[in-house]
Structures are given as C-alpha cells and as structure tokens.
Design brief:
The structure is a homodimer. Chain A contains twelve helices and 18 strands. In chain A, the strands form three sheets. The first copy, chain A, has an eight-stranded mixed β-sheet with strand order 11-12-14-13-15-16-17-18, with helices on both faces. The N terminus of chain A is likely disordered. Chain A is of the alpha/beta class. The first copy, chain A, has two domains: about 100 residues, Immunoglobulin-like (Sandwich), CATH 2.60.40; about 240 residues, Rossmann fold, CATH 3.40.50. β11 of chain A pairs antiparallel with β11 of chain B, so a sheet runs across the interface.
C-alpha cells in the first residue's frame, strides 16, 4: 500500500489502472444531525468503550462488535463543536487509528472530531483573511533552557508598520503552548471576529505553562513561581523584541484557563504595572490562601480598581471548579475589587474555553 | 488527579503537603547506550508487539508481560536519531499512552522517541540562534479551498530588509506540510547549519502534497496535476507576497522526499523557468513513463543542463525504491542530463531524509 502510494505520484497512469484500495469503513463519521459514529477494528478485544469530551464533561459509551471484529457506536446528537475522544480497548487507551485529527498535550494525545454547525461558527475555518501562527524558541532565564511559544499575528500584520496590543494567553494543566491554536483554534476565533468587525487586530502570545518538570515534585511545587519569572523576564521581552507589539500596559492583557487562570491571578495581580486586563477562565480558590498571599493587594482595592480596565472571571455551572470560582468572585466582591463575574453553562471543557475567548477578546483594548 | 493538578497552580503549599502521584514506570526510557525500553499497561492483552522505524526499516519486537499486566521490551542499541513507533495490542495499533512525543500524519499518528547523540547532532536542539516556523492558510486556485502551509524563516529575518533565497520542500505520501518541521526537524537542521557557518540564511516553504482527497480515486489520479497547479499558481505567489523572498529563479529551489521527489520531478522539470535547483530524495522510476512524459525535455538535455545549477538525486541502498532510483539516475545519464547521483546507506525512513536535507541545503545558492 505504501509502495503503491509513493510511486503513484510519478505513475498515475499505471496505478489508476489498478483497483484502488478503498477503506470499507471510516471513523469518525459525522452525521448531518450531529450524531457521530465511531469505529475501531479489534477482533480479539472483549470490551471497547468510547470516552470523550462531550457536553457535560467526559462520558463513556460502550461499543458493539460485528461479526468481523469491527466495534462501533453512534452517539446521540452532539452540539456542533470540536471535541476530543479516545477508545478504551480492554482498558488500554487507544487513539482512533483511522483519524488524523488530534488533540495533543503535554503528557499524551487524543483523537479529535470536528462537528460543524452554527454553534461552532465562532471557530470555523471561513473564507476570510487569515493571520499567521508562529512557533518560536526562546531562552528562558528562569529555567536556563530553550523553551517554545506560539504567537498569533493578525491579517495584514506584514503589510504595515503598526504596533499591536497583545494578549498573553495561557493553557491549562496537561497542555502546552500549542493547544490554544491546534485545538482551541484561538487564531480562527480572532480571524473571524476581526473579519466581522467585532475585534481590532491584536497579537496573542501563547506560552508553555509547565516550566517545571511535572514528574519532579520539588520542582513542581515551584511551577507558578518559575512560570511568572519566565513570563516577565523572558517571554515578554522576547515577544516585544521580535514582534511589533505596543509595549504600554494599557495595551497588554493576560488571560488563561484552569491552571492558566491560576497563573493569571498569581502573575497578573502582582504585576499591575505590566497588565491592564486579566481574564480568568474556569478557575477559582478553595481556601483562604488566596487572601493570605494577596493581603497587601486586597487591603488596597482602589489601587487594583484604578489599574485594571478589565478583570473578567468566567466559570461554567457544571465545572468541578464552579464553587471555587464562586468563592473567588465573592472574595473579590467582599474586598471591593471590581471585576466582571460571568457565570455560564458548561463544564471544564474546551468548547467552553473557545466561547470564553470569543466573548473576552472584544472586551479588550476597545 | 486532574483536579489536583489544576488547583495546584494556585495552591502550591496545600498540595505540596500531599504525597505526589508518582508514575511507577515511564515509556519510552532511553538508556545511555542507545537501547530503549518501551512499556504499556495492558493486563487483558494476549500479545503486544512493538513496531518502529528503526534503522533498516520497520521492524517488530514482541513485548513480555509482568505479573501486573505491564508489557515491556528493551531494544538493542539504536543509533541516535528521532524515530516513530507504536504498539500492536492484540493487533490494534496503539500509541504509547505515556509519551507526548508524536509523529503526526495525514491519516493517523505514531509515538516518537528521541535518542540523543553525535549521530543526531545535525537536528539537535542547540543553544544557537533559532529561526521561526510559521503556519499559514492560503487560498488555492487549483482546489478552490483554503489550504495550509508551513514556512521557515532564518534567525535575523525580522531585523533586516534583505530578501532570501527559497527552497520549496515537499513531504512524502501520508504526511502533511507539518511533518518536515514537526518530525523532520528541517528548521533545526537549518538553524544548526547556519550557526556553524555552513549555510547562508534561506526561507523554506513546506506545502501540503495531498491536494486531492486520497479516498476519492478519480481525484487521487489527478494529485500530481493539482499539486503542480497549486504550487505554481497559489503557493509561490502567496509566499513571495507575504515573505521577503528573492523571486529570481537562480534563488528558487524545489526538493522533496518519496512522493515529494516525484512531485519535484513532475513540477520541477516542466518549470525550469521557475527553478534552478532540484532535489529528489528516495524516489525513482519503474517503467518508461518518465521518458514518455518528458520526451521533449530529454531530447534537449543541453537546455536542462544550462538551467539547472543543481539536480541532486539521493537514495538509500536498503530503500524499496533503490532500483527505481538507480533507473532514474541511469536514464538521465543515458540521455545526457547532468545530475548529482548520491547513493547512500539507509532505507525509506526519516533519519535518511534528515541527513539528505542536511547535506543538500549547503549545496544550494552558494
């Protein structure tokens, strides 16, 4: 098969005369009503289960087996969006061997399925002007290593000399600097908003939030500290040197989801000389350590309020961090720290975070 | 676990007091002598096999099972390089669930293992100035769709106004525009050569060589034609508009591996007004259709010879296309078409293609 395909490029006439190797089944198969059929060939398996990031959080569905050992299941209709899933084949996590779409991560990967529709229009690939995603390597003073980051520049960036406002956008635990674009589609969300006249062009810098080796407990405990130093000492100077970024604090924002929301609170609130807007997606506090660690800041809410043009906190009511987010909101309210509290539907999932970014971006720099 | 890690960012003191969840095993484990131990937990499986792109081509190794259902195998020493592998768990292709390193592709993905050492120094991540990898979307006139491509710009690109020579670099069947960087490490190969003074800075444009849906036989037969139109009508104009590329043919080259080598022959030899250098990695011809399709060109070898400053053809002696590559070389020689014939060790694998790129790049534009 591989041989046939390689030579095919050179010898179309020869190979077109041969019967084409046709897959007799595909996976995933997305139906027009949003149901999805998943299939995997595993004749020797005793049980196969589908696990996916469907609405309401991760769910599991058992597959059925036909006489040839092909396992299959069709889901109920799923709202249009971009989801991850994998199979458990006799308990072993298995990506869909027929599907090239991925959700990558810092520890392992999953397969992904794209269900198009109006519900997913905010991150659809549309025939509009598109920006560029850049992959960069930079030297981190905090870790002493080369680290990677992704940068989004908007359509038209190359054509002028203008400087752009910038959002530093942080991922959650288990992801890397890659997933806000490769799976979160942050670049398409921005392209679509700009095309629709709802967002002025901006630059987004997406960093890697795991400077500490997560397998090293002593380093892991320092992750937030290392991340903050890396961001301020290395990432921001690197980005501002290499890209035409407006370096005024009024034009610099910080936001993140889950762990990245925690890093936004930790790095952002201590660096109000650098940031004029913060976004906390699906994160909160579960004890009084936030108040303990931010005593001085919380004692002078007027200082925070005068510096932050936007302090946006959103969480889904089905999120396992919902109560922690409510506690964050109530703590800030009690202390007189102005913020936008945005409770929503949804759980701790990427469809929620794509919608948060779509809602948050137009609130910045307007 | 997920919950603990998310909150961890905010509450280091709380969680540092808890016992860290330590994996009791890792996979892959690379030993200092180049042996690699692979492990996967599959208590219910009857047989697990490792399949990988080791030197000499794909090989399979059976794993052994311990009392807990953990399967394991240690390979013989493998030369330092970057390889793909996966498990067959009772015949089901399974990526390593403990390993975030990937080789992606157009149809499915594999796990990847990085074995560092002098043999892999040409694509190692070194503390030298690094260029940038850009991900672009462009409108293809040939397909009528938005397509993706990757662009490498060298260190210092942003700082000046210079225009750079350009290599259009093509992947093989089953890959996409992403793999020359994500797995082939073309950007690191160029960065290292530039840092060592062996290569003048250049731009590399890596396109997607599958414009036709490979599952559609009638379209698939037109892939080379669609690719050539896409390259010439859309990719080159897009790249030259968006990047500071020297648009003279003396400064424009085309090269590719396997299917991309066939596309280089098909598109390049018919467009000598556009390209002054061609590279064909691990590709050849198996019948007389090449001569039939290029009658006019082969009848006037002086025209080819005066236009091509470099026509570089390389193949490994263990490659399944070795005899086809020899036939290409001998056909060109017989017809008086000047070229560099570079027979090497190796098979139809990425370690060979990384070495070809490392050898080929300094021959361009000097």
């Amino acid at each position: 098969m591989k041989r046939a395909i390689c030579l095919f490029a050179l010898l179309p006439a020869l190979l077109a005369a041969q019967p084409a190797a046709q897959p007799t089944w595909t996976s995933p198969e997305v139906h027009s009503d949003g149901r999805v059929t998943l299939r995997i060939l595993a004749p020797k398996a005793a049980a196969v289960v589908l696990r996916g990031e469907w609405p309401g959080g991760a769910k599991e569905l058992p597959l059925n087996k036909d006489g040839e050992g092909l396992w299959f299941v069709t889901t109920a209709p799923i709202p249009a969006d971009f989801y991850w899933y994998h199979f458990l084949v006799d308990g072993v996590k298995t990506m869909d061997p027929r599907n090239p779409l991925l959700k990558t991560g810092a520890r392992s990967s999953d397969s992904a399925v794209d269900i198009p529709g109006p519900n997913a229009a905010h991150h659809a690939l549309r025939n509009v002007p598109h920006g560029t995603v850049h992959i960069e390597l930079y030297k981190s003073a905090a870790t002493g290593t080369l680290r990677r980051l992704h940068v989004y520049t908007p359509p038209g960036y190359e054509e002028g000399r203008a400087r752009y406002p910038v959002l530093y956008l942080l991922h959650g635990s288990g992801d890397t600097d890659r997933e806000w674009t490769s799976y979160g589609r942050a670049h398409l969300i921005a392209d679509n908003l700009i095309a629709d006249g709802k967002l002025k062009p901006l630059v987004m810098v997406m960093t890697d939030g795991h400077p500490a080796d997560p397998n090293n407990p002593s380093l892991r405990a320092r992750n937030t500290e290392l991340f903050t130093r890396d961001l301020i000492d290395s990432v921001i100077p690197f980005a501002e040197k290499k890209y035409r970024i407006d370096a005024r604090r009024e034009r610099r924002a910080l936001a993140g989801l889950s762990m990245g929301g925690g890093q936004t609170l930790a790095a952002g609130l201590k660096s109000l000389d650098l940031f004029s807007a913060l976004g906390v997606f699906s994160m909160g506090i579960r004890d009084d350590s936030f108040e303990t660690q931010n005593q001085e800041l919380l004692a002078n809410p007027g200082n925070v309020n005068s510096r932050l043009r936007l302090f946006w906190i959103a969480c889904g009511k089905d999120d396992f961090l919902w109560e922690a987010a409510v506690r964050l909101h109530e703590t800030l309210e009690k202390r007189g720290v102005q913020h936008t509290w945005r409770p929503t539907e949804g759980a701790h999932t990427w469809p929620v975070w794509r919608r948060y970014l779509h809602e948050f971006l137009p609130l910045l720099f307007q």
